[in-house]
Amino acid sequence: MNDSSQKPFLPFALPEIGEEEINEVVDSLRSGWLSTGPKTKRFEEDFSAYLGGAGLHSIAVNSATAGLHLAVEALGVGSGDEVIVPTHTFTATAEVVRYMGADPVIVDVELDTYCIDPAQVERAIGPRTRAIIPVHYGGLAANMKALREIAQRHRIAIIEDAAHALPTRSDGALVGTLDTDCAVFSFYATKTIATGEGGMLVTRNAELAKRARVMRLHGIDRDAFDRYTSKKPSWYYEVVAPGFKYNMTDIAAAIGLHQLRKAGRFHERRLQLARRYDAALKQLPLQLPPRGEIDAHAWHLYVVTLADGAPLGRDELIAKAFERGIGLSVHYIPLHRQPYWRDHYRLEPQGFPVSEQLFQRGFSLPLYTRMTDADQDRVIDVLSELLTRG
Asked: What is the mean predicted confidence (pLDDT) over 144-172?
């Protein structure tokens, strides 16, 4: 057995938190602003500037799920409507549609990207279709040119699920600046920048942004920071809609301020790790990730699939790697296999052949900025041992 079993367990992902983030959080604790306040506002401004600034509205929320829900609500999706989503995603992409009483229409992904298949989107559009939610899977952009053409032709909205996509590029432009209705990013602990929990809704649509800001905090027309910094009485507010409780705290924003400043360095390290995996794994019975232009990929995930002739199956491989101290993961158990979506919409595996193959054979390798080359070599050695045995 590989001697990696004697070494500390190498997890699938770890955030990289430095003294800058810690000191900023301590400053927030001492300031008295624990909920939404000046640091949340600064994080929003910095995020817009990072993406390119002009005309962008960034709305900080407590999760990407919250951001997606706000986007769907702000676009007026409601009971009887349909929104097209990929099956190969986390359940949040579809559940926000059900929150509004609408129905997700679940379609397969394409082999070239593992993102939603534009041809299937075209076929799924009907008189009730209001929007498409493409997922930039693993950090690789969906075919946005094709999707935008479809959306424009049918006059439907595009909400980008960009949970994996900072800093992903599509046709040279950063996701978050594309000609779509909005994009929603995630700052969950495993993402390319992390605040623990958190997300950001980004849009150029001023009316959508205004609605999302109101609905983010109980439908109140003024958030807490505005109430305590404006000339109006701090106690006065008006509830103008039945909103939600989706605001980001200044504690999370304090972390995000410094994570965002490190985003370029983080991406460069993920790119280096992806290139090292590419070079080391190409001789194994694995299909490496689809990528487009490699430096346009955010490399949130490095997903490989077992090739024909691999000496063991995916589940056995993950179990044996775990025994050797290596944490592999699976992204995702697709929606068509999840009991609620499967049963409610009568979904069958044969209707989703690409996603089904990816689920049956695919797994994600450890990839995070705190990984050393030696850590990565352990992963490579274990995979080589397990996949080259006679």
From this structure: 98
210 classed as catalytic: no
Q: To which H or E segment does residue 82 belong? A: strand 82-86
Q: Of 191, 210, 245, 282, which residue is the catalytic one? A: 191
C-alpha 228/C-alpha 212 separation (Å) is 21
User: 103-107 and 57-61 as β-strands: parallel, antiparallel, unpaired?
Assistant: unpaired
- Helix crossing, 64-74 with 206-216: angle to 10°? 120
Looking at the chain, which residues constitute the CATH 3.40.640.10 domain(s)?
A: 19-261
Contact call for residues 274 and 299 (beta carbons, < 8 A): yes
Residue 92, phi then psi, degrees to nearest 5 = -55, -35
Tokens of 317: 């491989």
Domain 19-261: give its CATH code: 3.40.640.10
What is the spatial distance between Cα 125 and Cα 143, in angstroms, rounded to a whole number?
17
Domain boundaries 263-387, CATH class: alpha beta
55-88 b/e with 16+ CB inside 10 Å = b? ebbbbbbbbbbbbbbbbbbbbebeeebbbbbbbb
- Amino acid identity, position 230: S
- Tens digit of each residue's pLDDT (9 = 90 or more) over 330-357: 999 999 999 999 999 999 999 999 999 9
